[in-house]
Specification:
single chain; five-stranded antiparallel sheet
Length: about 190
């Protein structure tokens, strides 16, 4: 069997197709989590913050600062008693209660009005963004294989087309633009 340019392009097309299907899911996961990670200043991909205003009887605070048992009673009404970690008064009429997982309760003891901030893990994005933090050795090996596959997918895609649309024609110009754009962004950043 003679190795020809047509046979090489067919081999590239098959490799490109097969690797693309194998890694298509990872492309989507990395793309979505990458977008979320790029916008961490406006969007927390790991947690959503649910804020609920609560109203407590102001007479609870008429005797002065609360004791732990009284704070636990308040938390019981919110279903958070089991998540209590500690509390303190950052200002004379402000009660701050810390809860497990980063949630909290802040109460104005003069009015009895408070804000319960509950952190809720985003099930999909929090899972996907962990991949950007390299969660372990197995992931390192998979990520390396993924990177090699992206190179092979790219190179096989470049070699599939011939003539004016291939790497020696219009495709080569597009390939150059793809390298030039991130280079320019890095230069002006």
């Amino acid at each position: 069997m003679k190795f020809t340019a047509n046979r090489f392009r067919l081999w590239c097309r098959n490799l490109h197709r097969d690797l693309s299907f194998v890694f298509a899911g990872m492309f989507i996961v990395y793309a979505l989590s990458g977008i979320a990670m790029n916008h961490r200043d406006t969007f927390n991909p790991d947690y959503a913050v649910k804020r609920t205003e609560i109203r407590l009887d102001a007479s609870l605070f008429s005797q002065g600062e609360l004791q732990k048992a009284q704070v636990l009673e308040i938390l019981e009404s919110l279903g958070e008693a089991g998540n209590f970690t500690q509390f303190y008064y950052p200002e004379p009429h402000r009660l701050k209660v810390f809860l497990k997982g980063g949630s909290s309760l802040l109460v104005d003891t003069g009015s009895g009005i408070g804000v319960h901030e509950k952190l809720v893990r985003r099930p999909v994005f929090s899972f996907m963004t962990k991949l950007h933090y390299n969660p372990g050795r197995a992931w390192t090996y998979f990520a390396d294989a993924f990177a090699i596959a992206m190179i092979l997918i790219t190179l096989s895609g470049i070699c599939m087309m011939k003539g004016k649309k291939g790497i020696l024609g219009w495709g080569g110009l597009e390939f150059g633009v793809g390298i030039l754009i991130p280079a320019l962004i890095l230069l002006v950043s």
